[in-house]
Amino acid sequence: MRPRRRRAAAAAAASAAAAAVALALAAPPVMTDAAWSDTENASSSVSALTVASPGAVRCLQSGLLVPATLGWNAAPAGGNVTGYRWTLVGSSNRSGTLAATATSVTLNANAVELGTSTFTLYAVGPGGWERVATNTATVGFISIALGVTSSCSTPAA
User: Fold this and answer.
1) Which of 15, 31, 79, 122 is least surrounded by Cβ atoms within 10 Å, i.e. has the fewest?
2) Residue 92 to residue 107: CA distance in whole angstroms
3) Helices vs strands, H then E, count in the chain
4) For the chain, how many structural domains are there in total?
5) Is residue 22 part of a domain?
6) Does 76 map to a domain?
7) CATH (domain of 118)
8) Where do the H-state alpha helices sit in the chain?
9) What integer pLDDT is reported at residue 2 of this predicted model?
10) Does the pLDDT of residue 33 top 70, yes or no?
């Protein structure tokens, strides 16, 4: 850097420092009264609930020319069950919802369907919270045009 540029840079830096000191001394902080500065109190409460489990799923009906029907026990009073949701995942992928008073669901085979799927039941409570049944069931269908058979099994207790 040339000597003239060095002096100009040093003078600019000194001027900036002097301006900052002068500004800090010239404008002291001012106290104000804000309208929102009073004390406020708030309170809240937290509650918890438990969604009752639908318990064990059991096979009620299956066989030649009949749909597969699965059942469970009704939700206990105060069980916080607002409905049920079920899924069938495997060779058949389906799902559905049921009323809180439901204790069974009947599953029909599609026109062409072959294989097994896992049936899972969930009790749905307030806010969409869910609780899964204590077991799943395996549901199978053999359906090619008119020949329909269904099967259902649950794990041994």
Assistant:
1) 31
2) 11
3) 1, 9
4) 1
5) no
6) yes
7) 2.60.40.10
8) 3-26
9) 62
10) no
pTM: 0.68
Token pair 């001027």 is found at 15
Please check whether residue 66 lies inside any domain of the structure. yes
pLDDT the model gives residue 63: 92
CA dihedral 148, 87, 154, 103 (to 10 degrees): -90
DSSP string, 97-140: EEETT--EEEEPPPSEEEEEEEEEEEEE-GGG-EEE-S--EEEE
45 lies in a domain?
Answer: no
Domain span at residue 117?
Answer: 58-153
Residue 6 pLDDT > 90: no
Helix (H) or strand (E) holding 144: strand 137-144
Contact indicator for 46, 27 with CB cutoff of 8 Å: no
- With b for 16 or more beta-carbon neighbours within 10 A and e for fewer, the 41-55 pattern comes to eeeeeeeeeebbbbb
> N- to C-terminal Cα distance for the chain?
90
